[in-house]
Structure prediction request, 350 residues.
Amino acid sequence: MKPLTCAATRRRLQAFHDRELTVADQIGVSSHLEWCDECAAALADLRTLASALQTLAPGRAAAVDEAGSFERAVLNRVKAEREVSFVAQVRDMFDDLHLVYAGLGAAAATVVSVVITLSMMRFASAERPDSLAAILSVLSTSVGCDSVTDLIDGGGCSRWQEQFQRANESAEQDTVFALDAVVIDKGRLADLERLRSHRHRQGAEAQIETIEGLMDSLYRARLETQIPQLAVTGNMLHVIERATVRANANKPLDLQLPPGKKRAEAGSVPLVLALLQLD
Amino acid sequence: MLAQKQLAQQLQLALDRLPFDQRTAIVLREIDGLSYEEIAYSLGVAIGTVKSRLTRARQALRSELREARTA
Prediction:
């Protein structure tokens, strides 16, 4: 063991006097004091001072000897209770701020994720307006109009017309028209005459002409009457299939389409045909 | 005997002149016999603070004792 110098011994002398040194330091200081008279004199001063102070309160010092062990036991017990207390554990937890930062970061990330998810659920549209599902949704939505007259005039059908416009404007390849007409079992369209009677209304002439052209095409389709061997559903699908207007390369419709719209590709298979095959 | 009584009086005066923190630390250590850790826990300070207070208190009291002996 390396011997201590006088300076090192003086730094440890007070703790040595108070018996607060480790065993190794106590051995080092003791071995130094055996041959160093100056450090031994300093230690003697400390002991003289201690004895002088103890003479100031002799009764108290004697009581200390008796109650010393009990007092230390109480203090150690209090210290042990404090170390295992909840407050002490929380304080120890916050001593290492890395855990606090990690917890705060995880909480912030969770909050941001929840906010983003709720925003997406709130603002994201359910479907593209030009998708087939959206078009079918528009076609299947109740118009809410009393007659075709209200549809042309635009009164009371704002929501339906909004969906119709959105689906129509978003379509890039096909032009979609939703017609409100009733196909009867005799193979003709009801209310077509009423639709024609409004052809001179303001602001809708171009659209009326387009719809009228589609209606003429429906008339030229020569709708057949019921087929006895098919069920009612099959008859309806047959009529709808025959009434479906689609672009044909051999016989194009002479319609005025809105600018930016293209005609549908010839030969596209209608959805109704697929339904017929399933039936 | 008279000299010891005078020395004790001088020491008591020197102890009273000490700052409260140093006086408390030296009394708890030398008279009550508490350890550094117990003093620190009792006063609510760090162990290093207890050591420094004890050192300053002992230096002051030793100088008072030297003056009393020489006088």
About this structure: The beta strands of chain A are 182-183, 189-190.
